[in-house]
Design brief:
- The protein is an alpha/beta fold.
- It has an eight-stranded mixed sheet, with helices on both faces.
- Helix 1 crosses helix 12, helix 2 crosses helix 3 and helix 4 packs antiparallel against helix 8.
- The longest helix has 17 residues.
- It is globular.
């Protein structure tokens, strides 16, 4: 693990195969997880010699916790600052759930730095008024009660119930990530996502190869959300991974990695 400091915030990250070929792959975790959620993808992509960079977002994992409200723009700027620190100009950027929304925000702010996008189990629409109230209420609850009760409640939506029983190691990993997330960091991100913009217009302006992946049984960001992004983004590729919920990269890593590997192989090493 390495650490990069931006302002008063230390961002923890792993930089695998820094001498690798092709544009580096940067993977952004979802809520309430950390960079370890990408372990199967880091191993798979790294075997092909590509550089893979995986940060812990501020408020998560080993990065600094910043209470209050963290908008998606702040997360995206942290990623850009990390890339500047590493001397990386262009990347393939991927994210799951909240991480996918950070990818969309990064595209809105820094489109010229992108060679490809991976949008997994995410949605481009702005939050509804009801959703804003629910996120703020959940943030208040996490600050009062901690992460344990919340983690137990959402597990069966994060991982398909059959996979909870079938893959106990995956279940344990997902629960551990959720339970050890700092409540202040999770609450700040929830409040920030409550005010996120609508990305549907900016997705129509994407001009780089894009892979969209979704679990067939995802309740948080259903397949219809993935189909919407597929329609919006010119020449994008949509992959639905069967019998998975919100975390197909962990529930069915072989299928997810196959789609990711084919996508990365299709991106030229040089622009």
């Amino acid at each position: 693990m390495d650490t990069f400091v931006t302002g008063q915030v230390a961002i923890a990250y792993d930089d695998h195969h820094p001498e690798g070929n092709g544009p580096p792959l940067v993977l952004i975790h979802g809520h309430p997880f950390d960079r370890s959620m990408w372990a199967p993808q880091v191993e798979h992509v790294g075997r092909g010699g590509r550089r893979v960079i995986v940060p812990d977002l501020r408020g998560y994992g080993r990065s600094t916790v910043v209470p209050g409200r963290t908008p998606l723009q702040t997360f995206a700027q942290d990623v850009a600052d990390l890339l500047d620190h590493l001397g990386v100009a262009e990347i393939v950027l991927g994210g799951l759930s909240m991480g996918g929304q950070i990818v969309m925000e990064f595209h809105r702010l820094f489109p010229d730095r992108l060679r490809g996008l991976v949008l997994a189990d995410t949605a481009p629409q702005a939050e509804t008024e009801e959703g804003r109230r629910a996120r703020d209420a959940m943030a208040d609850r996490l600050l009062r009660e901690g992460m344990g009760g919340y983690a137990n409640e959402v597990l069966a939506k994060m991982v398909a119930p059959a996979n909870i029983r079938r893959f106990p190691a995956v279940t344990g990993h997902v629960l551990d990530m959720m339970r050890r997330t700092p409540p202040d960091g999770a609450a700040a991100a929830l409040r920030g996502r409550a005010t996120r913009p609508d990305y549907t217009a900016s997705l129509a302006r994407v001009r780089v190869p894009t892979l969209i992946v979704v679990g067939s049984d995802d309740e948080f960001t259903p397949v219809d959300d993935a189909r919407l992004m597929h329609r919006l983004i010119p020449d994008s590729t949509l992959v639905v991974i069967e019998d998975t919920a919100h975390m197909p990269n962990l529930e069915r890593p072989a299928e997810f990695n196959e789609a990711l590997g084919k996508f990365l192989d299709s991106i030229p090493q040089e622009r």
